[in-house]
Amino acid sequence: LIQVRRAILHARTFYEGSIYTRDSTHVGNSLILYYHGGIRNVPPTPGIIKYIFEMERVVGFAVRRYLPLHSHLDPFRHYPYFPARLHSTVLVDHLEIVKPEWVVSHFARWKFSPQHIVAVSLCRVCPSPFFTRHYLTMYRTEFQNADSPICSGVLDPGKSELSLSHSL
Fold first, then answer.
1. pLDDT in tens, 123-145
2. 44 by DSSP, 3-state: which?
3. Side-chain half-sphere exposure of 164, counting CA atoms within 13 A
4. Is this model's pTM higher than 0.85 or not?
């Protein structure tokens, strides 16, 4: 899988504010949605982290991805603002290297049937302007009620990134 003589294996790692673990440490933190091969113009793929390795101070994940669903239509395709997708329960037989920057988010896994899982993205940023305004309003209200610093955000639709700022 890797072409070096020495690698360090980790049980967990932190990357850009998120915790990632191998599945033998904590299954929930090992379930990831990622851009397969780093290609960002296709929907993210669900996978499970089997190993976290470090080579020459660079961390990577050895992942088994869930096979795509070919036998059934995804019932969630009609709901673009609900981040759930139907997938096969079958994992590929081989491990694939995934760079941490390819990871979109963790996902929640629900066994829909013996042959299907539902993968629900746990991404904290929603690309929908309606939901972004709703959640920012909700968070602003919570911060104000708690006498905490005010947090506001701006969604850049071209980048699908949320820029946060706060004031005291």
1. 865 444 444 444 444 433 333 33
2. coil
3. 12
4. no
